[in-house]
Amino acid sequence: HSQKIPIVTGLSELCKGHVAAKQASLANSAPALLPILFKLVTTPACGDAKSENQQQKQCIARAISNVARVCPPSHVEALFQKLMHKTLDAINTAENTSADTKCDLLLLAQALVASEVLEQKSVDFLFRVLKSFCEDDEHGARAQKRAYNVLLSICTNYHSFVVDESRVEILIDLLYRTTISSHVASRYWRLSCLLAILQGDETPDAKIRVSSILGVCYFSQSYRIIAFFDSRFRRNATLHKGCEQENSRSGILLFGDLA
């Protein structure tokens, strides 16, 4: 892996360019490059220290995101479907699948999410797959933590998908129900997902969502996250007042109680 990283980094930088001719050339090469990059992530690197190996895989994942942006969308979707079926197989054979394999598959999913080229139906498919990792702690702490990382990427890169009326309550309910089953290593990322849901949320139901999320944070004793909410939403006087009213009705901590 270590010898390939400079090449992968250079390829990643090329994909960031804006020259039309270069983009067209890369688009022709991308369908052949992506499977190779996928294999680099899922193939164990002999002799590398574990932490160094993970850093190299993160670098390759960034390259995958950049290459996917110039790749024909139909090819990215086909690769994504294959990846999801492998991930489902890993879930169904959890006892016989290593934590490294699960984390590698989830890292590839996160790379494609970061590219922002997936169709909404694919993001919805991934969300349903991630629920298995979030709800069931048998997959191990590392895999669950990675699953919440992927979910955070969805919340960040597909925010309109997340705050859709038909989905946002399902997501908040999932994050609330997994309070107990979450491994310690996953809790920060789980709460980061809750925070990301509210980023840029200008819908009329925003203050109700703040109230619900504060309840999850309070139940988790996540006072640092609540304090972050406090500093963020004091900037919006109308939203802050509405949140205080909603919280008063539900008996949840008010922002001011943290002072």
Q: What is the element layout, followed by pairings?
A:
Elements: H1 5-15, H2 20-42, H3 50-70, H4 73-92, H5 99-115, H6 120-135, H7 141-157, H8 159-162, H9 165-177, H10 184-198, H11 206-219, H12 223-233, H13 237-250
Task: Explain the overall architecture.
The protein is mainly α and 259 residues long. 76% of the residues lie in helices and 0% in strands. The chain has helices at residues 5-15, 20-42, 50-70, 73-92, 99-115, 120-135, 141-157, 159-162, 165-177, 184-198, 206-219, 223-233, 237-250. α4 runs antiparallel to α5. The longest helix is centred in the first third of the chain and has 23 residues, at 20-42. Residues 235-259 have low confidence and may be disordered.
Spatial separation of the terminal alpha carbons: 50 Å
Helix/strand structural class: mainly alpha
Uncertain runs:
235-259
Instruction: Write down the Rg.
Output: 20 Å
Helix content: over 70%
How many β-strand stretches? 0
Number of helices: 13
**Outline:** globular
